[in-house]
Amino acid sequence: MATVTFLKSAPRIDDLPEGNRPHVAFVGRSNVGKSALLNDLAGTKNLARVSSTPGRTQMVNLFDVDKKFFLVDLPGYGFASGSKAKRDTYSDLVRDYLWQAQQLKLVLLVIDSRLGLTDLDRDMLSYLESGKLPHLIIANKIDKLSRSEAVNLMRELQARHNVPVLSHSNVTGSGKGEIWHAIQTAISA
Ligand code: GDP
């Protein structure tokens, strides 16, 4: 069992830790359940704050795993407050991080199973593809779908996108093992 601890919140790229430890980053819309997913992976309830105010945390949050690598929670995009320009894109911080993080081994694009891929998620996928960044999709909150809806969603995502698609539920804990496996595989590659 990995030990995950909060390291720091970085408001700027320059504040990221130096060194060559691998990074595994999480991106997705605000409210998609990224904090809850991180808590579930860490096996704790309060590692990452499960926010009631979407989009409040506009920082890069770093979590140490066994002093070997970092899980990196990037600011959520598409939150409903703030200017339209801000709402319709992901922040420069996210863009800069993805562009500059030399040790980035894997990006997990977390989507809401009820919504599927939104336009912003598609933009993010294109960005990851164009940067040749290894990535996969996590269909989160899968408990909100019926069994057949869940099967259909996974099939559709797998057919359309040339990347691994995993599912997760914070309510049932399903998917956690597969996600850890994908992370461990990526950092040891
Ligand atoms: P973040 O903004 O992406 O960090 O989202 P949060 O982790 O704060 O979660 C947003 C809301 O979704 C909270 O009310 C969570 O309780 C809920 N949530 C998160 N994950 C799940 C899940 O797997 N299933 C269900 N049903 N609700 C979830």
Give a verbal description of the structure.
By secondary structure, the protein is α/β, with parallel strands linked by helices. The protein contains six helices and seven strands. A seven-stranded mixed beta sheet has the order 1-3-4-2-5-6-7, sandwiched between helices. The longest helix has 14 residues, at 147-160. The mean pLDDT is 89. Guanosine-5'-diphosphate (GDP) binds next to helix 1.
Tags for this model:
binds guanosine-5'-diphosphate; alpha/beta; 7 strands
Condensed summary:
By secondary structure, the protein is of the alpha/beta class.
Low-confidence stretches: none
Q: Work out the radius of gyration.
A: 15 Å
**Oligomeric organization of the protein chains:** single chain
The bound ligands are: guanosine-5'-diphosphate
How many strand segments?
7
Shape: globular
Query: How many DSSP H or I helices?
Result: 6
Mean pLDDT: 89
Q: What structural class results from the helix and strand content?
A: alpha/beta
Strand content: 15-25%
Whole-Å distance between the termini? Answer: 20 Å
Instruction: Trace the largest sheet across and list its strands.
Output: 1-3-4-2-5-6-7
Major β-sheet, in short?
A: 7 strands, mixed
- Would you list the SSEs in sequence order as H and E? EEHEEHHEHEHEH
Helix share bin: 25-40%
